[in-house]
Amino acid sequence: MKIIPLFDRVVIKPDTQTSKTKSGIVLPSTSQERPQIGIVTAIGSGLDIDANNVGMQVRVGDKVLFNKFAGSEVKIDDETLLVLRQVDLIAIMEEN
Amino acid sequence: MKIIPLFDRVVIKPDTQTSKTKSGIVLPSTSQERPQIGIVTAIGSGLDIDANNVGMQVRVGDKVLFNKFAGSEVKIDDETLLVLRQVDLIAIMEEN
Amino acid sequence: MKIIPLFDRVVIKPDTQTSKTKSGIVLPSTSQERPQIGIVTAIGSGLDIDANNVGMQVRVGDKVLFNKFAGSEVKIDDETLLVLRQVDLIAIMEEN
Amino acid sequence: MKIIPLFDRVVIKPDTQTSKTKSGIVLPSTSQERPQIGIVTAIGSGLDIDANNVGMQVRVGDKVLFNKFAGSEVKIDDETLLVLRQVDLIAIMEEN
Amino acid sequence: MKIIPLFDRVVIKPDTQTSKTKSGIVLPSTSQERPQIGIVTAIGSGLDIDANNVGMQVRVGDKVLFNKFAGSEVKIDDETLLVLRQVDLIAIMEEN
Amino acid sequence: MKIIPLFDRVVIKPDTQTSKTKSGIVLPSTSQERPQIGIVTAIGSGLDIDANNVGMQVRVGDKVLFNKFAGSEVKIDDETLLVLRQVDLIAIMEEN
Amino acid sequence: MKIIPLFDRVVIKPDTQTSKTKSGIVLPSTSQERPQIGIVTAIGSGLDIDANNVGMQVRVGDKVLFNKFAGSEVKIDDETLLVLRQVDLIAIMEEN
What we know:
Chain A is an all-beta fold. In chain A, about 0% of the residues lie in helices and about 45% in strands. Chain A has one domain: 10 Kd Chaperonin, Protein Cpn10, Chain O (Roll).
């Protein structure tokens, strides 16, 4: 089963391990307002709901920072994914 | 009796069995915020309320993910259907 | 006395019998959020409030599904009618 | 003293007798949400606040249906009038 | 000291005597929602905040009806004035 | 240290003495809703956040009336300044 | 690990020492509404979410004044950074 996000939406696999790794990123669970990290697994067509092409600024495989409470959660084959609008992505995280 | 949705609306037959099948999609009833799965049974003209043609991004027969609380419920011949705006559709679900 | 709706408004005669007929449409009174069925008895000019012609998507005589709480109720010659904006119409109901 | 409404506003003389006449229109006082009937006594230039000409859809003398809680009330020579935006008018009432 | 209103704002000298005069206008203090009467003493350039020229629909000296709670109050030489946006003006009052 | 306001913002040095001077302007502290007086000490580029040039309607040195609760306060070299958007300026005050 | 802000966002390293230095800027902790000072460490493409190029008004290295509660906080290699939209920047601070 594959999710094809509509409009300017993206599918994100949240990186729940981040706060425990040595990657240098720490997102302590005490802070409810910190954004989350995840990997983009699918992107929409880049059309917005008025049929304008806004262009996708991220690609499949990008590690992204996103707003924790944005989007919709869905579970496929025991994997929890998030579908959110591109605008709820904050930044791309890149290894040095 | 047939429903012809107006503007950019679509008619969805909700897939209430999803959470019990082996399709790989699990939408546990404990989570009120998870989106639902359904099949598109009719689509509107694609005109928005300002008479612009925004185009329909889904087709009849598509399996779609949508916001649970969006749209209006109607019952025809003992079948419960939902009419919602295309913008409330989140993604198309495709078999691998 | 005749009602000529302004802008993109329509006049609807609600079909209060629907929930009891054999037409196949059942709108149980227990659900406050189900839409209602009615017949369009008059339509506006199709101009919106900015003087753009948005076009009317329904015609007099159409059986339509509409949001229960939209619009304004008025009583003429013992007949209760609703005046609502075209955008509050959800779908056209057509006999098979 | 004369009121010249600004922009797309109209002046309405509310028809408080309607609910008691034989005109066929009944607006029972038990319902707070029913619209009111009145006569248009003056209309604005039809310019909106962005200086676009939206055009006036009603004329002086028209009997109109309007939202009860819209607009501003003013008393001139013991006559209570309402000034409201054209968009708060719902329909024109015409004798058959 | 002179007030030069910015954008589409106007300066109004409220006519606090209105409710007691024989001018025919009565604005009883019991009603909090009635608009007020005042004289326009200065007008802005007619540019809105996006630098579009919307044009001023009133002139210095006009007697105007305005929303009581709109705008900002300022006191100059013991005179209380109001600065409000043109859009908060409802109508021009003219002697017959 | 110098503040260069971004977009259509201005820097204002509030005139806290106004309510005690003989300048004719009285802004009693009892009224929380009265606007304040200040001197413009710096102006932005006049670009708005969509990169349109809206133009600055005030100049450095102008005495302006502004909304008390608008903008952000900053202290530089013991001087309290306010940075606010041009749209929160109400009027220019000019000596007769 | 590097943060590449999306759209018109910027990454800011907050200057938590400001309130204790001799730089002339004092942002007392008693005031919750005072803006903060920080250094821009990365800027986005300048595209807004509708794919228009709004242009970036700040450069990497700029000392900026920004709204304390805007944006998202992220911790990288023990360094706390903020990602916020350009519009939440108030001013550039420049040494005399």
